[in-house]
Amino acid sequence: MKTLGEHIVDKQSEFPDATGELTSLLSSIKLAAKVVNRDINKAGLVDIIGSTGVHNIQGEDQQKMDLFANEKFKAALEARGQVCGVASEEEDEIIIFNSEKGHNGKYVVLMDPLDGSSNIDVNVSVGTIFSIYRRLSPVGSTPTLDDFLQPGSAQVAAGYVIYGSSTMLVYSTGYGVHGFTCDPSLGVFYLSHENMQIPEDGRIYSINEGNYLAFPPGVKKYLKYCQEEDKETNRPYTSRYIGSLVSDFHRNLLKGGIYMYPSTSTYRNGKLRLLYECNPLAYLVEQAGGRASNGFTRILDIKPEQVHQRVPFYCGSLNMIKKVESLIQEHHTQES
Ligand code: AHG
Ligand code: MN
Ligand code: MN
Asked: What's the CATH code of the domain at 14?
């Protein structure tokens, strides 16, 4: 059985500028994931459940586990010197690693250290999402905001960890999507899902339907389409929504399906963050043969303007995304 470490080294030879640095970076993420995994497994026994009483820059309640995961990933990413800075859901501003080692790092990492954190209190799967770019500023200098505001198409690697009934790390460096399952007795990730492909046609739709009244008309129409009976297209589809993006994405990646977080009355641009939630998952889904869109544009083509910007997100099986995009655009045209 191949370990994650062995696989990363093997794949390294496929990078045009193979240096081993990205290998080392991915290995830091793996180590932090193990630490976070260990503590999540003890939730209920140690004091990591619940809120810190603090709100992050987006006005969201920070959970104790959000902060713990943020610290662990930051420390792991700083330790080896490959990374010059980090942007995180839990940090108002970008974090620059201000040391000679840090300034010499070639990469920036954007992350959602703990996705779905409110689910920890109820023992439901959560995750970590990460996105890696080569910096634009010269190596050796202080990194700049522009290093972090690159379109998703410039990612050199992305992935997620899912802390579920088993713990998995799924990543891509642009050569397919590969999944590794952690053997808890050894603390080792083994290759379990090589070259993952999302079915072109799925029959699962994932959306918080409680927001139905605020959805754009095209999305409302698509939901009715999902619910209609039609033998030929295998409808009605089935509805599954965990409320942990990583978990919903992971299930749809394996089984085929669509994840949607449209604009709502509370969140005019949707709830999900472009840089550290949507871009990495868009990169993975495209690598797996699927599609990710804001309803009009490919997610990976959007030029970011702010670290914490939100975007409506439609992600999953190719034909399902094309269908919802066509309905969103049809209705948009009718209205304007
Ligand atoms: P986070 O815990 O990082 O803030 O992310 C929560 C996100 C995402 O995981 C999930 O899909 C979505 O919020 C659920 O939102 P709703 O509760 O509004 O459906
Ligand atoms: Mn999240
Ligand atoms: Mn989070």
From this structure: 3.30.540.10
